[in-house]
């Protein structure tokens, strides 16, 4: 009798899982077609005011993103995009992200001048009219700007780019179809046509580095990784402090916000133009330079120079930012409190806390009973997981999970247990319900 009951429970569980998978597919097919709608925006303003401007819309071939958890955010992020079915008002897709503009508005320069930044977002192509709500938050999680636009999928001014040829590219990892895998594109910046073999070598090294780290190593077969030959007229990338401005596809440069090592690009539309005809969800830009630097912006892009001794550790660290939504666990000795994070609102990043809303969340269940708070660095071996004070650029009031981590230093050989937990949850979110097919 017990065996029969167990068998019936297993059958019921399988039926329930199958129903859930079909329901997710039906939800996608009800509202969307297998194409991508690219939305271009401008975020502009200063430290006090922000305005969001919609720009062009594009039709792209295929949809490489998720087809489940469509109305659920993986992480809160610093900004959010909600797609609603116009007829019912129901949220049928949403995503979260960070932006370079939001970083800039916290700088001293933003107190004196106004600037505008490009942004691009991909959503599944709707079958019926939709409304798209864009929402940006400030350092205290307060909403600083919103914008709502109506989009009719039959609009003749949506730029049809499905016939455009793709740039030359090759897959470094091909694990399945675009809809069944996490799709990562690697772009070349500052590599001439003659330097494309070097780019491919650097790209393979980046892939090997990322997937040598757990938990990415365990998920390697769920990724597609494509290297795109976006050639430059000149070799190298801009270093403004040295008055060096080569011609490159994405106009990347060091000295972002006047910080020597901060390497970024504001030409986000050019980046996405280079990927027309290629399935992608996440982006890496490899920069042909021996100057140390890089950057990672959650659900936007990762960028890193490739020819210095810390290249591979930096790539992995920045991938933690851009893909994983993890923040920096280091702090500055001369900066007791950073303005980047509020002390009144729990950070949404899963690898730091200010203890405002930590109990029962994040890595709290990994902390052994009796672990002192703050956890003493001298007892790091005794307490591999705890609450170590100093994180997210602040020496005081912010806590990290472990004494060291890939998100804290180039020397640490692994992600800490809390980062493992967060990355596993995120990849499960992307891959839940997928039956991978070769």
From TrEMBL:
<dbReference type="InterPro" id="IPR032625">
    <property type="entry name" value="M64_N"/>
</dbReference>
<feature type="signal peptide">
    <location>
        <begin position="1"/>
        <end position="25"/>
    </location>
</feature>
<keyword id="KW-0732">Signal</keyword>
<feature type="domain" description="Peptidase M64 N-terminal">
    <location>
        <begin position="27"/>
        <end position="143"/>
    </location>
</feature>
<protein>
    <submittedName>
        <fullName>IgA Peptidase M64</fullName>
    </submittedName>
</protein>
<dbReference type="Pfam" id="PF16217">
    <property type="entry name" value="M64_N"/>
</dbReference>
<dbReference type="GO" id="GO:0008237">
    <property type="term" value="F:metallopeptidase activity"/>
</dbReference>
<dbReference type="Pfam" id="PF09471">
    <property type="entry name" value="Peptidase_M64"/>
</dbReference>
<dbReference type="InterPro" id="IPR019026">
    <property type="entry name" value="Peptidase_M64_IgA"/>
</dbReference>
<dbReference type="InterPro" id="IPR038171">
    <property type="entry name" value="M64_N_sf"/>
</dbReference>
<dbReference type="InterPro" id="IPR024079">
    <property type="entry name" value="MetalloPept_cat_dom_sf"/>
</dbReference>
């Amino acid at each position: 009798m017990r065996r029969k009951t167990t068998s019936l429970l297993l059958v019921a569980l399988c039926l329930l899982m199958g129903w859930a998978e079909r329901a997710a597919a039906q939800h996608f097919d009800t509202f969307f077609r297998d194409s991508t709608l690219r939305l271009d925006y401008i975020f502009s303003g200063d430290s006090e005011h922000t305005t969001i401007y919609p720009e062009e819309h594009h039709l792209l071939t295929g949809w490489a993103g998720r087809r489940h958890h469509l109305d659920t955010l993986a992480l809160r992020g610093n900004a959010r995009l909600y797609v609603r079915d116009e007829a019912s008002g129901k949220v049928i897709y949403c995503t979260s992200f960070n932006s370079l503009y939001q970083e800039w508005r916290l700088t001293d320069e933003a107190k004196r001048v106004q600037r505008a930044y490009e942004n691009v977002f991909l959503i599944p192509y709707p079958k019926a009219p939709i409304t798209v709500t864009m929402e940006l938050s400030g350092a205290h999680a307060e909403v600083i700007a919103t914008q709502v636009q109506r989009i009719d999928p039959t609009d003749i001014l949506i730029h049809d780019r499905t016939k455009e040829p793709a740039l030359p590219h090759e897959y470094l990892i091909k694990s399945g179809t675009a809809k069944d895998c996490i799709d990562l594109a690697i772009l070349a910046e500052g590599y001439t046509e003659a330097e494309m073999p070097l780019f491919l070598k650097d790209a393979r090294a980046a892939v090997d580095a990322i997937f040598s780290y757990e938990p990415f190593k365990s998920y390697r077969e769920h990724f597609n990784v494509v290297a795109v030959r976006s050639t430059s007229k000149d070799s190298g990338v801009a270093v403004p402090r040295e008055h060096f401005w080569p011609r490159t596809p994405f106009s990347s440069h060091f000295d972002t916000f006047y910080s020597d090592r901060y390497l970024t690009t504001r030409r986000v539309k050019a980046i996405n133009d280079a990927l027309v005809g290629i399935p992608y969800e996440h982006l890496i830009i490899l920069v042909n330079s021996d100057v140390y630097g890089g950057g990672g912006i959650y659900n936007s892009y990762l960028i890193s120079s490739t020819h210095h001794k810390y290249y591979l550790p930096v790539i992995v660290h920045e991938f933690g930012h851009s893909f994983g939504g993890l923040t920096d666990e280091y702090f500055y000795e001369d900066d007791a409190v950073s303005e980047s994070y509020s002390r009144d609102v729990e950070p949404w990043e899963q690898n730091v806390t200010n203890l405002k809303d930590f109990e029962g969340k994040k890595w709290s269940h990994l902390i052994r009973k009796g672990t002192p708070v703050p956890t003493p660095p001298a007892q790091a071996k005794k307490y591999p997981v705890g609450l170590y004070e100093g994180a997210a650029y602040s020496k005081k009031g912010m806590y990290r999970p472990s004494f060291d981590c890939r998100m804290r230093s180039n020397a640490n050989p692994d992600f800490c247990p809390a980062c493992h937990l967060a990355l596993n949850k995120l990849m499960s979110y992307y891959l839940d319900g997928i039956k991978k097919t070769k």
